Amino acid sequence: MKLIYIPFFIICVLAGSCTTGNLGFQEAIDRNNRKLETEEQRRDAEFLVEATDYNILLRELAEKTSGKAYARVVSDFAAKNLQDHQTMAERIRDLAKDKKISLPSEAGDRHRNMVNDIEQATNKNVDRVYLNTIELVQERLIRLYENAALNANDAEIRSYAAAQLDIIRSHNRRSQEIRKQLI
User: Which listed residue, of 68, 98, 108, 116, carries a Cα 20 to 30 Å from 62's Cα?
Assistant: First the structure.
């Protein structure tokens, strides 16, 4: 009996496909491109990878801002964003698991500058930097989710994208309101 499991274990280790490990953005895209059969599945997977990448970024930004924000309203808003994006992350993970799609576990390098801007901002400046940054990210996210809600091949992915749009739009409106309130 052990002889059967040992070769399987060796194949898994050599292939690197039995666990997701710490995948970056491009590694998740590449893994999905190799294992998914159709172009439609690959496009749906690309949406989930992209959505996860932005979600990780928004959680990192919220975590760094919630304890550093100058205005209480910004700190509270960052905490609410963190909570909402943790819930979204769980839903994305469940959907990806059902569809056998690999997701990144860390934000891509393309977002590193945004996180660095928050880390380097002074307490008085962090509110402005955070609000400007997340507005930019949310606008990109809205376009990404609108496209998926209309064009994803998989009905569950379309439904997920459509359902999340209200939350993302709400965050975008609130960040604009707070920025206007603070200026």
Answer: 98
Instruction: Kindly report the pTM of this predicted structure.
Output: 0.85
pLDDT single digits (tens) 19-65: 446 889 999 999 999 999 999 999 999 999 999 999 999 999 999 99
Neighbours of 139 (CB within 10 A): 12
Place of tokens 């990448």: 53
Report the C-alpha gap between 48 and 51 in whole angstroms.
5
Residues 6+ apart with CB under 8 A from 115: 57, 60, 61, 64, 107
Q: Which of 6, 27, 91 is nearest to 55 (CA)?
A: 91
The C-alpha atoms of residue 104 and residue 49 are separated, in whole angstroms, by 6
Quick count: other Cβ atoms within 10 Å of Cβ 13? Answer: 11
Count, residues in the chain: 183
Determine the Cα–Cα distance for residues 97 and 25; give it in Å rounded to an integer. Answer: 17
